[in-house]
Amino acid sequence: MRPVAVIGVGMTKFGEHWNEGFRDLVIKAGLRAIEDANIHGEEIQAGYVGTMASGRLVGQEHIGALLADHMGLTPIPITRVEGACASGGLAFRQGYMAVASGMHDIVVVGGVEKMTDLDVAEVSDILGGAGDQEWELFLGATFPGLYAMMARRHMYEYKTTAEMLASVAVKNHKNGAKNKYAQYQNEITIDQVLKSKMIADPLKVFDCSPITDGAAAVVLAPLDIAKKYCEQPIEIIASAQASDHIALHSRASLSELYATKVAAKHAFEQAKLTTKDIDVAEVHDCFTIAEIMAIEDLGFYKKGEGGKATLDGKTALDSEIAVNTSGGLKACGHPVGATGVKQICEITKHPVNMEKNSRKI
Amino acid sequence: MRPVAVIGVGMTKFGEHWNEGFRDLVIKAGLRAIEDANIHGEEIQAGYVGTMASGRLVGQEHIGALLADHMGLTPIPITRVEGACASGGLAFRQGYMAVASGMHDIVVVGGVEKMTDLDVAEVSDILGGAGDQEWELFLGATFPGLYAMMARRHMYEYKTTAEMLASVAVKNHKNGAKNKYAQYQNEITIDQVLKSKMIADPLKVFDCSPITDGAAAVVLAPLDIAKKYCEQPIEIIASAQASDHIALHSRASLSELYATKVAAKHAFEQAKLTTKDIDVAEVHDCFTIAEIMAIEDLGFYKKGEGGKATLDGKTALDSEIAVNTSGGLKACGHPVGATGVKQICEITKHPVNMEKNSRKI
To answer: Which residues from A are below 8 Å from B63, CB to CB?
Structure first.
């Protein structure tokens, strides 16, 4: 496979978009990425788009054709990819594979979700479709409840505290306050998190990522021609994906993300790097406990020490490994299909990349 | 890119499955394909699954993880791909790319839809999500209506008759009667089609494909190791995909499938073949007019002559180019996400392939 680089990124502000629809958002992000990449539309040979639940949220499937049409890109192929909260990341991975294989040269990858047109109960039910619908959602287990069980187990096994969970939200709001694309650009305190409304014990409302509208897009090209378009193409040096039992009750451990461990192992092997080489990471903090498990299972901290590390400021902006510099899902927002692509946008624009033309996973 | 072959196929019977759910169907098809390929589960490195609207039809998204779990394949990556009625075909294409790129060796591709648990009006609304929801479905244009407009225009431009449309259904039912996996295994007459209930003038109920439950799966491997698993691996010599304006009102022509023309051109170029080399084809006959347009726009017959060719028996089983030997969507059934993969199952099992180790698109 040939080396592939990101040559442009673009996104909309994340938040509640009352005056823009699903297609407006993703087209805006796509056009910004195309502009950022200094390419013309005619140079794009294919596209991928990640969206989790456009069918239920806005009544629209067949997103690939919709985008090809409304971005004026027909007759190129655009394919929708879905993997719940990983939809954007998986779309990126397919785009990467399309370029790496030699099938296409310039490929655009988008991610989008329009979520705020329905009420919270409906959206929560729809998001439950990411779990095991027959065995979890049908019996009343929505995602806050599932992650609450993971948090409780993590607290039981590793003495993780509510303050440690809260410190994830506080850090991510601090980062979000610096990000003009973030849904919440305000800082919060640990005390505010702890006193906020209980959602699913021990998770309070400030432990949860919000419901968000938004879109993000990136442009990919073979590394050897990437320099033609931009001064600092960001090479993709690894891509890995793994799965786990979808239903929580089938997993070997409630306090561990096994798929994350497997994918991280493969990615580090591909990149020939170790965790010590990583300066910055965007991880999935749909709930505060998710970020703690992610930084442990990616290998940045020993199992059980992620909470304390966060409370001690070891994942803050100015630390050795800055986690969720965008504000994460918590403060930047979580338009499900867009999140994985937004993470790529953030990480490629980070100073560590701009200065050292460095790495990302 | 390295050559890729199909080494195993499997499917469920298409029809109304009252005693089997979404996951049961796709797992059954997957296991049959794995058995047919003579592989062990541990050899599978990745998977793709096509499903159009599982979120709305059965409340379940995140189909990749669901399958990895329930087929006992964790932690391998499985990714859902959606492209309306092309979902299965696009999943196959991603699987092809994953093997061709060298990213994975053995890849399983599935397609599935469980549609009969809802009533026809609901399903029709959900299928409308394949069109332009804001500009077509919202204003009342469901798919029978959209294809009726295409049929009317084709009749106006090319003197295509109701008998010609009916002859597609008659041929496909004749083929379906020989297919043990088909939803309808009964022959029908032109007179029966013409006298059947009008759905959207000029399309009668026998011009329409049915609502169906079912699943299909195939196993892919690099050609150089495919012989290890089966005597007659079927090489994939071309794969192409194209898009068109999603809303009918934006298309340059109502009586032509532009995306089909573009994709066919690319596929024939890749394969270094012409239409004269094709012995058998599976095409998308969601409505009888769709098959007529497909065989014209694929280049098998001149524009406007597809209806007469069908009426004259030129696409029958024993003709020069047999079209929809499975019974097509019309008689074999149309579980949307499964259809594209079923077409691959059918075409690889066809005598022309078994005897000559021949070609398919």
So the answer is: 82
The answer to whether B27 and B86 have CB atoms below 8 angstroms apart is: no
DSSP state of B135: T
Q: Which of A332, A334, A345, A350 is catalytic?
A: A334
End-to-end CA distance of chain A: 17
Shortest CA distance from A257: residue in chain B = B75
Q: What is the pTM of this model?
A: 0.96
C-alpha angle B179-B185-B186 in degrees, rounded to nearest 5: 140
Q: Is B94 on the interface with A (CB under 8 A)?
A: yes
Cβ contacts of B144 within 8 Å, gap of 6 or more: B124, B199, B200, B203, B208, B287
The answer to whether A217 touches A110, Cβ cutoff 8 Å, is yes
- B197: CB partners within 8 A, 6+ apart: B204, B205
Residue to substitute from B27, B44, B82, interface A, most A β-carbons within 10 A: B82
Measured in whole angstroms, the distance separating CA B242 from the mean position of its chain's CA atoms is: 15
- For residue B83, the 8-state DSSP code is B
Nearest Cβ partner for B81 among A81, A93, A126: A81
Q: Could you please report the per-residue DSSP string of B176-225?
A: HTT-TT-S------HHHHHHSPEEETTEEGGGB----BEEEEEEEEEHHH
Interface ipTM:
0.95
Q: Is A41 on the interface with B (CB under 8 A)?
A: no
Among the options A85, A230, A332, A345, which is catalytic?
A: A85
Give me the sign of the Cα torsion angle B248, B253, B254, B256. Answer: negative
CB contact B52 to A (< 8 Å): yes
d(CA B163, CA A112): 45
User: Of chain A residues 137-166, which have a CB less than 8 A from chain B?
Assistant: 137-138
Choose the closest CB to A132 out of B66, B101, B243.
B66
Distance CA A214, CA A113 (A): 6
Say how far apart CA A226 and CA A223 lie, in whole Å. Answer: 5
Contact indicator for B6, B233 with CB cutoff of 8 Å: yes
Q: How close A238 comes to chain B (CA, Å)?
A: 11
If residue B5 lies in a helix (H) or strand (E), which one and from where to where? strand B4-11
* Domains in chain B, CATH or no CATH each: 140-206+242-332 (3.40.47.10)
Reported as a single tens digit per residue, the pLDDT across B127-157 is 999 999 999 999 999 999 999 999 999 999 9
Closest Cβ–Cβ partner in A69, A83, A132 for B79: A83
- For residue A243, the chain B residues in CB contact (below 8 A) are 64-65, 68-69, 73-78
Query: Comparing C-alpha atoms, which of A61, A88, A109, A71 is closest to residue B85?
Result: A61
Read off the pLDDT of residues B37-79 as tens digits, 9 standing for 90 and up. Answer: 999 999 999 999 999 999 999 999 999 999 999 999 999 999 9
C-alpha span between A200 and A147 (Å, rounded): 8
- CB-based burial of residue A178 (10 Å sphere; 0-12 exposed, 13-18 middle, 19+ buried)? middle
Residues B250, B253, B255, B256, CA torsion sign: negative
Helix, strand or coil for residue B345?
Answer: helix
Partner residue facing B59 (CB), from A75, A133, A243: A133
Is B246 close to A137, i.e. CB distance below 8 A?
no
